[in-house]
Amino acid sequence: MEPQAPKGHLHPITLVLREAVSLFVEMGFEVAQGPEIESEYHNFDALNVPKDHPSRDMQDTFWIKGVPETVLRTHTSPVQIRYMKTHEPPFAIVVPGKVFRNEATDATHEAQFHQLEGLVVGKDISLAHLKGTLDRFFKKLYGEDTAIRLRPSFFPFVEPGVEVDVTCFKCKGSGCNVCKGSGFIEVMGAGMVHPNVLSHGGIDPNVYRGFAFGGGVDRLAMLKWGIDDVRLLYSGDLRVVNQF
Ligand code: YSA
User: Which residues of the chain have pLDDT under 50?
Assistant: First the structure.
């Protein structure tokens, strides 16, 4: 018999990304996409992040040389604006994709990583819908014994804004070195879409409301499989990827 070439398989990030997207599709979400090379307007201004506002510093940006006001998108949130401008509410979308930040890498930070964004706009949308949707999602992804917790936080494009924590994968909530004793790990930013952002998307904030969320897919994969360094996922080391 002819020797067979070893079979390839999907990368762990692709696996978790596809699983996450299909869990949202089961809940009625559509999938949307946008460009990785993005205008400063969509990446920042339209999301209620003014030019000299300190919150711009939260996301170190790669600017495109020789092309003014153009960036490698620092998050998937600009797709919120692009989608709102071209669709009538009500709608519910998720946006998987690559994002880029000009920052030093460490065990939890890469310069290129993946995010999953969500946006739901309708007439009577509340924070309770956000919580219910994410609770369902994380229970399906990590098991029925998973709990979520919302903590007040700030993102210019939401009001109120929250940070979403899930039960620690290692200690299951009792407290350990991974979750620094809290029993929870932070996984996402989220909140109620800011009225200015709805307006920039061409949606009347007096009629419609929305919730949005955005999380790191690499971190979802790390939590799912207990991987303690994000850089392992991009190392190309077959001893790592062949375990999935
Ligand atoms: C917040 C509110 C919304 O209504 C919608 C979206 C968001 C999220 C916002 N756009 C954002 O990017 N927030 S963030 O800077 O805190 O990043 C979100 C997630 O990306 C983090 O929780 C983390 O999981 C991941 N992340 C951030 N920097 C990273 C990273 N993952 C790997 N490497 C990095 N350098």
Answer: none
